[in-house]
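User: I'm curious whether this sequence folds into something compact or stays loose and floppy. Could you predict its structure so I can see for myself?
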Amino acid sequence: MYSAILNQITDKLVSDGIIKEEEKELYAYGLQQGILILSNLAITIILSLLVGMLYQSILFLIAYLPLRVYGGGYHAKTQRKCFYYSVLLSSVVLLVIKIIPVYTVLLVFLVISAGIIVYELSPVEDVNKPLDQVEIMIYRRKTRSILLLEMMILLLLFLIDCKKLALPITVSIIVMAIMVLLGKIRQTQK
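Assistant: Here's the prediction. I'll summarize afterward.
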């Protein structure tokens, strides 16, 4: 049923002259990806509202998503698994942010270690998203720029003693490092 609706939408786009027939499959895929992303975001926001952690969730997403887009890392083999893993990841992240004690020295050590991993190993391509040499160079530069900006923001937050705001950003960089490492491990197993 889901694919039938997407086909109806893309058929309408073709009949209205908005897209060409040969672009139909690409647009159907794009719509499907967009729906998946919006579903993941909606569930993350709902979860965060249920546990009273909306701003933490939003800060995590703002820091994590740009790194994830350009840094790559582990990707699930199917969209269904991706959806479930994303919901699980959001739940675990919110739990970690809620229960982790905010020790500045430990957080600084963890985020520097994670930052080094992301800086050195990104981007990590996936079977479903191979990159050519130019893309690798561009994605590496963007990942590093985003990471350095986030690290400067974290430094500022630590200096003004705003640990509650620093924690979700720190967790996002740590999660990204884990995803990069898992992606690298998957690459070596092939």
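Summary: The mean pLDDT is 87. The CA atoms of residues 96 and 135 lie 34 Å apart.
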